[in-house]
Amino acid sequence: MDKVRAEILSLGLPRTTAARIVIAAPAQQIFDLLADPRCHSLFDGSGTLQGSISGPVRLYLGAKFGMAMKIKVPYRITNTVVAFDEGRNISWCHLMKWTWNYELVDLGNGKTQVTEKFDATDIPWFAAKWLNATGALERNPKWMAKSLVQLKAICES
């Protein structure tokens, strides 16, 4: 059996990375997981997300939610939902101003294309400095691809 993989996309944009996968599940089922911050750690491919610590059970435009994180040391981060189109698109950002975006496209026959995008195009200088110092942009595509594979496994089980 072939190993399930997500496609890492080359967007040709600085400080922007993305990955894509097709999941044999309805878009709304997938979106429901993305819109529930308590579920994010279930499919986090980075290993940095430790769990949801605050916020609503279901996200909405403008919702704030806190996450426990760990990259070498534990910390907490508050995210704000900056785009929300039920069943199709959800994005959030935090104090560094980069966004995590999930776009869902119904392909028919119960299949959905899911694209995860990290966009740090319009961020403050200190955030750009942090991204460069940590090598996050080099790691993000692999972590996003792993997250999408885990999301697929959850949705198809």
Automatic annotation (TrEMBL):
Q: Which InterPro entries match?
A: START-like_dom_sf (IPR023393)
Spell out the protein name for this chain: Unannotated protein
Q: Which SUPFAM superfamilies match?
A: Bet v1-like
